[in-house]
Design brief:
Organism: Desulfosporosinus youngiae DSM 17734
Oligomer: single chain
Structural class: alpha+beta
CATH topology: Pnp Oxidase, Chain A
Largest sheet: 8 strands, antiparallel
InterPro entries: Pyridox_Oxase-rel (IPR024747), Split_barrel_FMN-bd (IPR012349)
Helix content: 25-40%
Pfam family, one: Pyridox_ox_2
Distance between the termini: 17 Å
Shape: globular
Protein name: Putative flavin-nucleotide-binding protein
CATH superfamily: Electron Transport, Fmn-binding Protein, Chain A
Length: 152
Amino acid sequence: MRRVDKEITDQNLMEEILKKAQVCRLAVSYRDMPYIIPMNFGYADRVLYFHSAQEGLKLLILRENPQASFEVEIDTQLVPSEQGCNWTMRYQSVVGFGEVEFINGLAEKREGMKHILQQYSDNITFPNDAALEEVTLFKLKINTMTGKKSGY
């Protein structure tokens, strides 16, 4: 990282950022075409969990190339200045790389969905098995991640 003063090296702080974030941007590549998707997600133990419809471009891409990267950020705030070129942002972020695996069994789907729901609330009604069968769940096992902060 070029700006070492902004680097987050504390794994616990990166975990806190992942647990607090509301949106995860999933980046994939399809035949040399980049594609990025903002998604709801869940996080636990260096694994990101996602749910999706049963078909679509991101699933087509991930089945062909399961390598992916991600980005989340929290506490964003615009910091204006008198000169336009000196405006900046406050933020804390995590970027990482990993490989996607599709989740097929109902027990595994329940576990993945639990992490997704807990990302947003402890008070969400859990879907029944029939509803779980209608969605695609996949997980990204994080191989590497780095954190960055500005203004904190």
